[in-house]
Design a protein that fits this description.
Layout: H1 19-22, E1 28-33, H2 45-56, E2 60-64, H3 72-86, E3 90-94, H4 101-113, E4 120-123, H5 125-129, H6 132-137, E5 141-143, H7 148-159, E6 170-173, E7 185-187, E8 218-221, E9 224-226, H8 236-241, E10 248-250, H9 253-267, E11 271-274, H10 283-303, E12 312-317, H11 324-332, E13 335-343, H12 347-352, H13 359-371, E14 375-380, H14 389-404, H15 411-414, H16 439-452, H17 468-480
Parallel strand pairs: 1-2, 1-3, 3-4, 4-5, 8-11, 11-12, 12-13, 13-14
Antiparallel strand pairs: 5-6, 6-7, 9-10
Bound molecules: cobalamin and iron/sulfur cluster (SF4).
Length: 489
């Protein structure tokens, strides 16, 4: 079987022996980023890492960014068409957020109806934490946790005609009655964590039918994986606990900087978005690593021309790790924007959400970044079943500090509502989904959403009043002062 004409030729790096020598032939693998319904989706790094690892091992791998297509119908049709063109030995479906579930289910159903009879493996955070869901749709297996080693092993087992059942890291339907209430899942975790220092860089080519190149404007880079935190609502800690090894693992700073410089040189990338959950890692080790990354970027990017030659950098981190020396250095390396998952400026809520930090840490960290002239994007979970006027009042103090410093607040600060994800600590107390709010809070929430996203889903920002943030703050202020659901603005 050879790929149909019209598919791009993939340039393969030198195949490291001895693996390629032992392969009878190369596998062809298609990895699909399932549609999420997001009108402005970003390319996912997960499939791009898997494709890089497969290509380095001598296989052919394509990434179809179906999420970038206009709608789910088009995405499903394009996936079926491409699968028929490529005729892959194995197909991977990436489900990077719960929003991808409906599109992933439709994609899998359409592939099976079209007669695709190869194995279909599903991966990403949501299926890792709830593998029974894709298995119930007919997926062959779910790759739980980080996928590189497990996926490569699965691909090579399929090529060699071996069973998938012996592969650690895969969740498979368990033997037993198929008509039980839920499919049973069997799973053995992997013994070794993925070695980040040994990983190739993620591929940056997608099948041309989908996304035009965006790397010239913005490219995502993953410099470390995991987080030492254990916040009650967050899926990250549970995901990385599926595998062994430390909860936060960094890449070598020089490797990160070399990738940044390569993106700049190759695509002219203007902004690098580091997708790390907590760029500051754990304690002193993390801080030293972040400083080393900054120094390495200064050296590498300096070599290709600083000033206008340097890309802007955006990171996300815990607010309690912020301190001036590291951020001064990161700013010199190009840092312009810091996303802080603050969640609340009210101590009882920080405690309830297991944030392991004090309100004073929040204020100190935010003030430090503002003092350095950085753009600070704070996200708050303002709407949850326990929201009170006192809490909203405390959050408003922080929001006013940001606004007085000229920072746009954005929907992440003003209209986030608690979602409960399966597998998280909160998921053991509450059913998955969106828990109900107290009636008066629900009223305020709806009114805030009306001001934040007056447009249709495809254009949520359209139709916002010019000073919509002031309107939201006024509404929240009314609630905080105890005037019921707030005066409508
Ligand atoms: C960057 C990011 C975004 C970006 C870009 C998303 C994208 N296209 O990738 C933006 C800002 C758009 C975003 C939005 C959202 N996100 Co987000 N996002 C992330 C973040 C921080 C990094 C993703 C990443 O690039 N990781 C690096 C890569 C290398 O890791 P990876 O994706 O996990 O891939 C590995 C494995 O999962 C697996 N794998 C992945 N795909 C596949 C496919 C196959 C076939 C196989 C076998 C394996 C496999 O192997 C990969 C390599 O090891 C993650 C947290 C995280 N640490 O991953 C949250 C995260 C994925 N997001 C999350 C959420 C909830 C959302 C939102 C719903 C938030 C919201 N309320 O709006 C939206 C949904 C958007 C949408 N419409 O779908 C949650 C998902 C929770 C869950 N269990 O479902 C996460 C885990 C964050 C969290 N704190 O819990 N997000
Ligand atoms: S600090 Fe952030 S990434 Fe880490 S567990 Fe908490 S919410 Fe998740």
């Amino acid at each position: 079987m050879s790929p149909a004409p019209g598919l791009p030729t993939v340039s393969l790096p030198a195949v490291p022996p001895p693996l390629a020598a032992t392969l009878q032939h190369r596998a062809r693998v298609l990895i699909v980023s399932c549609p999420s319904g997001d009108p402005r989706p970003k390319p996912c790094l997960g499939p791009a890492y898997l494709a890089a690892v497969l290509r380095r091992a001598g296989h052919e791998a394509w990434v179809l960014d179906a999420d970038s297509l206009s709608d789910t119908d088009t995405a499903v049709k394009e996936t079926v068409r491409t699968a028929s063109d490529v005729s892959p030995h194995l197909l991977g479906l990436a489900v990077h957020s719960p929003e991808c579930y409906p599109g992933a289910m439709r994609t899998l159903t359409a592939l099976l109806q079209a007669g695709f009879d190869g194995p279909v493996l599903v991966g990403g955070h949501p299926p890792s934490l709830r593998p029974a869901v894709p298995l119930s749709w007919g997926a062959t297996a779910v790759v739980r946790g980080e996928g590189e080693a497990t996926f490569l092993e699965a691909v090579e087992s399929v090529l060699d005609g071996k069973l998938l059942s012996d592969i650690a890291g895969l969740a498979l339907p368990a033997d037993g009655p198929a008509d039980g209430p839920k499919p049973l899942v069997r799973f053995t975790g992997r013994r070794e964590p993925v070695n980040l220092a040994g990983l190739p860089w993620p591929v940056r080519d997608y099948l041309p039918t989908t996304r035009p190149r965006v790397e010239s404007v913005l490219a995502c880079v993953s410099a470390s994986r995991g987080c030492w935190g254990n916040c009650a609502f967050c899926a990250v800690a549970c995901f990385y606990r599926l595998g062994p090894g430390p909860r936060w693992r960094p890449r070598p700073p020089k490797d990160v900087a070399a990738e940044v410089a390569w993106l700049r040189r190759t695509f002219g990338t203007e902004m690098i978005h580091f997708v790390d959950d907590n760029f500051l890692g754990a304690g002193r080790q993390g801080r030293d690593w972040a400083r080393e990354v900054a120094r390495a970027i200064l050296r590498y990017v300096g070599a290709i021309g600083h000033g206008e030659g340097a890309p802007r950098l955006k990171i996300a981190c815990r607010v309690d790790g912020v301190e001036p020396e590291t951020f001064r250095l990161l700013k010199r390396a190009g840092l312009t924007t810091v996303e802080l998952g603050v969640e609340s400026a009210y101590q009882p809520t920080l405690d309830r959400f297991g944030k392991s930090m004090r309100v004073e840490d929040v204020w100190r960290g935010v003030r430090c970044l503002l003092g350095l002239g950085l753009r600070v994007k704070v996200s708050l979970i303002m709407f949850h079943p326990w929201t009170t006027p006192a809490e909203v009042s405390a959050n408003l103090d922080l929001l006013h500090l940001l606004r007085d410093a000229g920072q746009p607040l954005g929907p992440e600060a003003l209209s986030n509502r608690l979602h409960v994800y399966p597998g998280t600590p909160l998921g053991t107390q509450l059913p998955p989904g969106v828990p109900p709010l107290p009636p008066e809070v629900e009223d305020v929430y709806r009114e805030v959403c009306r001001l934040v996203s007056p447009g249709e889903a495809a254009e949520p920002d359209k139709g916002r009043r010019p000073d919509w943030e002031s309107d939201v703050l006024e509404l929240l202020g009314n609630y905080a002062r105890g005037s019921g659901r707030g005066r409508e603005v």
